[in-house]
Design goal:
The chain has 8 helices and no strands. By secondary structure, it is mainly alpha-helical. The protein has one domain. α1 packs antiparallel against α5, α2 runs antiparallel to α7 and α6 runs antiparallel to α7. The longest helix is centred in the middle third of the chain and has 30 residues.
């Protein structure tokens, strides 16, 4: 047996599942972020939704699937452990950036609300949602075979717009 055998075997097991046999990653994980994007977008009309935004917490890929009810949850966790570094490294970096964007957005929105500036809070919610949506698109691209994430410099430029 060669070292590549577990990877080759996993790729074959992934055929017909919701996990990419190329990247060993699944888009279902991104639903965790889609939830907070939706909540952030609602802040303009419903600032009371901030409690739900602030309650959102990062969740690891494996934990997301362990807590999931989808049929492919177990193989998704197994495959992630074997994901090729050329996909997993930019994916993990993108997810870390997304987690940081949410944390920064929550802090800024919370400060605006505390100052009584609901208009600024709504603006910040929209901006945070847009940045997060861009990161979700990047992560989705990686899941589907792109090896490119967003650099920290690109993130800093986008965050500078807030």
């Amino acid at each position: 047996m060669t070292a590549a055998d577990p990877v080759t075997a996993m790729a074959k097991r992934l055929e017909g599942t919701n996990v990419s046999p190329q990247t060993f990653l699944a888009t279902d994980y991104l639903n965790h972020f889609n939830e907070v994007v939706m909540l952030l977008g609602m802040l303009g009309d419903m600032p009371e939704m901030f409690e739900d935004v602030a309650a959102w917490t990062p969740k690891s890929y494996a934990d997301h699937f362990r807590d999931s009810s989808i049929a492919d949850r177990e193989i998704a966790v197994e495959a992630y452990a074997l994901a090729p570094a050329r996909f997993r490294a930019p994916f993990d970096a993108t997810i870390a950036q997304a987690d940081a964007v949410v944390a920064r957005g929550v802090a800024m929105i919370g400060a605006a609300l505390e100052a009584g500036d609901a208009e600024r809070a709504a603006f910040l919610g929209g901006q945070t949602a847009q940045i997060l949506q861009r990161l979700i698109e990047v992560a989705s691209g990686i899941i589907h075979g792109s090896e490119k994430g967003m650099s920290q410099a690109e993130i800093d430029i986008v965050l500078g717009e807030v």
